Structure prediction request, 176 residues.
Amino acid sequence: MNSESRPEVLISSNEIAATVDRLAAEIRRDYLGKDPLLLGILKGSFMFMADLIRLLDFPLEVEFVRLSSYGRGTESSGKMNVVQGLRSTVKGRDVLVVEDIVDTGLTVAYLMEYLSKKRPALLKLCALLDKPSRRRVPVSIDYIGITVPDKFLVGYGLDCDEKYRNLPDVCILEGE
Ligand code: IMP
Prediction:
């Protein structure tokens, strides 16, 4: 990646940091003292999760699941399957799902349904980015960072064919 191919910045790293700050304060109000299980969806949420938990000053557990919805490129296959399953017990736990972006909604709808069958005490969803214009199934997001337009985004953990995850800003991929 050279400077010429760097995509256009949509959300700067400063704006992301302020948003993560606000989300952490909202989450703290609901989860303080509950020893929650924060469940990130790989791979896109790893950076968001790392920043978020540093702002949560109480005991918690972190785990990641990996689901596949996107193949290579930018279009969703619409098919869901858990690739890497859960190791922690969900029953009776206060769970918070941490997602980078909700697009069609298929990924989180699938995971929330999967988790709710395991009977957690509390199950909420936090998404850094929300792209409601592309929704195919209804999803209720408890903590929303920033609503974004219908553009394919990369950076801050988001990829296109495994590239651009390391960009500090959320950027619009040219030509999408
Ligand atoms: P959904 O199932 O369509 O809501 O898609 C959710 C997943 O698709 C996210 O966790 C991302 O990994 C990926 N995704 C959705 N939109 C984008 C985007 O604009 N850029 C990169 N990845 C995206």
Notes: The radius of gyration is 16 Å. Residues 35 and 60 are 5 Å apart (CA to CA). DSSP finds three helices and nine strands in the chain.
